[in-house]
């Protein structure tokens, strides 16, 4: 396998470890910047949506994939971000303030759910966050003096320096910039003590604590960070949908976000992006084959959530490292070809049964 | 002056008195071993010292400071590091990352500077890396540096856990059964390292261990426990020939 030769510790602290990575990512950015010149309005809109979900995916990945805290309430953070953005814009605040405010308000909401659930993990945390999502979606419905209740309200297009940022192109570029920003932020976190503390908490709370990691403090920080990033995605989401209504932020949306991180691959930022791609492409795929399916299946209500659910379950069972894990194995396979060994990417677990007994 | 002392230490779990009336002190620079049959309360004493458990009675004193009420995450910063009986490494991180987590108690960079990965963070990271590399060199872990812990054999993981504890630059090191699961050669290697840790690094060690050969080889003093109480204390030879200890090990026969 190709490993860059290292001569200095600083090399491991770079954003792009292999020199070639810089070129590839640079190329990708150039293509993405130029793409709206060639792609039609529909695709630009869809890609904008993809970026927004990738941002939220990165937010949830930090919490679930890196810190091991499952949240089934992230639709609430997306909702809080979206409503904060839309309400503040409607009150005449400038866009340069509303979008950061959407992130900050949502981060505060993240602390509000993070602190009472500090001692919870696994299923208990999943249920608590699910309940939180339910509460927020209720608040969005019932507090109609502010949120417009069930009918919601149209989102004002933002303007910067007199230029109105309206339409799919505007959403595309805003979201792309935000996505790059969020990825850089996440990369910084992950190569800092904070990122290592997150991984430590995920893998062993008891030894994390014995290494000096304050569990309560770090879990709160990560909840705030994850919520803040998801809130930023929410602020952009408001412009993507252009009309906010509370039923957009339901459990199904939370499950879609969870699907992004699980199917994409826990514990990898690539996974968040792959997962978002999968999540946005699947409904299109279903729509395309729907007409060819037998009527009882193609017209079945709830086909889409069922397919999501089945894929999520299959993925957890058979490919726990998700799309990113599969991708890494494929890369390994190509690198080694034709000398591939089936056991190359299998973990050595055989010792466990005999030796792990004390 | 002792580096560490426990006075009348006791803890109950429901009806079980896992540890009761245990007092001992550990002198700077010595290897102090705790032996005893399964369930004697050895690991529980470590969990009390690491403040994972709250004692029902007694006081803990380290380096002239009462640590009976200190929160567990501050223990490493004071200079007490430990390993775990059943290995508690960060399995989905690399060996290097595991060692760097051991540096956490020395990390002083602020949250916002980390979000921006400011030059101060970069400099601190390089310093942490230097310490981690020294530990890697000390324990001969170079070729596993970038391996995931989950892919490493058991014997290597045991060493990594020792390394992670050393990265905290402790004054007192708690080793819970460092040789369990290791083969004969690995155990011998472990004995050398414990000796080096004491002599070259000047770190005081409290070790829980079943392997009497290892205990005799490295310990200055040994304390034997049974049912949470002290049976005997002294040199390895004294404790091993103590009739109470022999009786505890062969199970009640005089
Ligand atoms: N968290 C706990 N809750 C209830 N009982 C506990 C707990 N921790 C330890 N015990 C009990 O305390 C006693 C001492 O356990 P401990 O783990 O300290 O033994 P040990 O000396 O380390 O044994 P071994 O050599 O098998 O590791 C045992 O009876 C155990 O069941
Ligand atoms: Mg034990």
Helix/strand layout:
The complex is a heterodimer of chains A (358) and B (254).
Chain A: H1 19-38, H2 41-66, H3 74-90, H4 95-114, H5 122-142, H6 144-147, E1 153-154, E2 159-160, E3 163-164, H7 167-190, H8 193-203, H9 205-210, H10 215-241, E4 243-244, H11 251-264, H12 269-290, H13 295-298, H14 303-318, H15 322-336, H16 351-355
Antiparallel strand pairs in A: 1-4, 2-3
Chain B: E1 4-13, E2 16-26, E3 31-35, H1 42-49, E4 57-62, E5 65-66, H2 75-78, E6 80-82, H3 95-101, H4 111-115, H5 119-139, H6 154-167, E7 172-176, H7 184-199, E8 204-208, H8 212-218, E9 221-226, E10 229-234, H9 236-240, H10 243-250
Parallel strand pairs in B: 3-8, 3-9, 6-7, 7-8
Antiparallel strand pairs in B: 1-2, 1-4, 4-5, 9-10
Bound molecules: adenosine-5'-triphosphate (ATP) and magnesium ion.
- The number of helical elements of chain B comes to 10
Distance between the termini of chain A: 37 Å
Question: Could you name the CATH class of chain B?
Answer: Alpha Beta
Side by side, the strands of the main sheet of chain A go 1-4
CATH architecture of chain A: Orthogonal Bundle
* Oligomerization state: heterodimer
The number of distinct structural domains of chain A comes to: 1
Number of domains of chain B: 1
Percent of sequence in beta strands of chain A: under 5%
CATH superfamily of chain B: P-loop containing nucleotide triphosphate hydrolases
How many runs of DSSP E, i.e. beta strands of chain A?
A: 4
The Rg value of chain B, from CA coordinates, equals 19 Å
Mean pLDDT of chain A: 84
Largest sheet of chain B: 6 strands, mixed
What is the helix tally of chain A? 16
With strands numbered from the N-terminus, the spatial order across the biggest sheet of chain B is 6-7-8-3-9-10
CATH architecture of chain B: 3-Layer(aba) Sandwich
Shape of chain B: globular
What structural class do helix, strand and pairing data of chain B support?
Answer: alpha/beta
């Amino acid at each position: 396998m190709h490993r860059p030769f290292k001569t200095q510790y600083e090399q491991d602290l770079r954003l792009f470890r292999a020199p070639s990575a810089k070129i590839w990512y640079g190329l990708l950015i150039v293509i993405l910047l130029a793409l709206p010149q060639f792609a039609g309005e529909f695709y630009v809109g869809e890609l904008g949506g993809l970026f927004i979900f990738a941002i939220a995916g990165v937010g949830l990945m930090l919490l679930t994939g890196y810190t091991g805290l499952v949240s089934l309430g992230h639709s609430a953070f997306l909702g809080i971000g979206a409503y904060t953005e839309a309400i503040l814009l409607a009150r005449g605040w400038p866009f340069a303030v509303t979008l950061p405010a959407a992130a900050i308000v949502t981060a505060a909401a993240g602390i509000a759910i993070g602190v009472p659930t500090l001692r919870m993990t696994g299923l208990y945390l999943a249920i608590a966050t699910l309940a939180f999502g339910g509460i927020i979606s209720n608040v969005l419905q019932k507090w109609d003096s502010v949120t417009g209740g069930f009918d919601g309200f149209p989102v004002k297009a933002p303007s910067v320096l007199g230029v109105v940022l309206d339409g799919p192109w505007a959403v595309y570029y805003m979201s792309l910039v935000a996505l790059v920003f969020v990825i850089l932020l996440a990369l910084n976190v992950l190569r800092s003590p904070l990122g290592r503390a997150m991984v430590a908490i995920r893998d062993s709370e008891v030894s994390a604590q014995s290494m000096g990691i304050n569990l309560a403090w770090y879990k709160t920080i990560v909840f705030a960070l994850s919520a803040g990033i998801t809130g930023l995605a929410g602020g952009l989401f408001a412009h993507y949908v252009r009309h906010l209504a509370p039923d957009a932020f339901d459990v199904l949306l939370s499950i879609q976000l969870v699907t992004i991180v699980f199917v994409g691959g826990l514990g990898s930022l690539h996974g968040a992006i792959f997962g978002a791609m999968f999540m946005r492409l699947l409904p299109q795929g279903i729509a395309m084959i729907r007409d060819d399916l037998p009527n009882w299946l193609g017209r079945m209500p709830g086909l889409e959530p069922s397919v999501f659910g089945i894929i999520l379950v299959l993925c957890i069972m058979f490919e726990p490292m998700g799309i990113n894990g599969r991708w890494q194995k494929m890369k390994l396979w190509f690198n080694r070809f034709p000398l591939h060994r089936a056991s190359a990417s299998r973990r050595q677990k055989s010792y466990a049964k005999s030796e792990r007994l004390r | 002056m002792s580096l560490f002392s426990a006075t009348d230490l006791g803890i109950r779990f429901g009806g079980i008195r896992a540890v009761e009336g245990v007092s001992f002190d550990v002198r700077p620079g010595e290897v102090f071993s705790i032996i005893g049959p399964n369930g004697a309360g050895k690991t529980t004493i470590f969990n009390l010292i690491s403040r994972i458990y709250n004692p029902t009675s007694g006081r803990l004193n380290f380096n002239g400071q009462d640590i009976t009420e200190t929160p567990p995450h501050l223990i490493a910063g004071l200079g007490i590091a430990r390993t775990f009986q059943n290995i508690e490494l960060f399995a989905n991180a690399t060996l290097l990352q595991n060692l760097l987590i051991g540096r956490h108690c020395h990390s002083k960079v602020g949250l916002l500077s980390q979000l921006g990965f400011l030059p101060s963070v970069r400099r601190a990271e390089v310093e942490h890396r230097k310490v981690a590399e020294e530990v890697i060199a000390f324990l001969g872990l170079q070729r596993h540096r970038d391996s995931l812990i989950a892919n490493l054999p058991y014997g290597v993981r045991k060493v990594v856990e020792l390394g992670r504890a050393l990265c905290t630059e402790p004054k007192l090191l708690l080793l819970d059964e460092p040789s369990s699961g290791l083969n004969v050669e690995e155990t011998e290697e472990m004995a050398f390292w414990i000796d080096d840790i004491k002599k070259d690094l000047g770190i005081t060690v409290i070790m829980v261990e079943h392997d009497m050969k290892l205990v005799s080889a490295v310990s200055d003093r040994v304390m034997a426990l049974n049912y949470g109480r002290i049976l005997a204390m002294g040199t390895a030879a004294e404790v091993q020939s103590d009739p109470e200890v022999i009786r505890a090990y062969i199970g009640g026969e005089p």
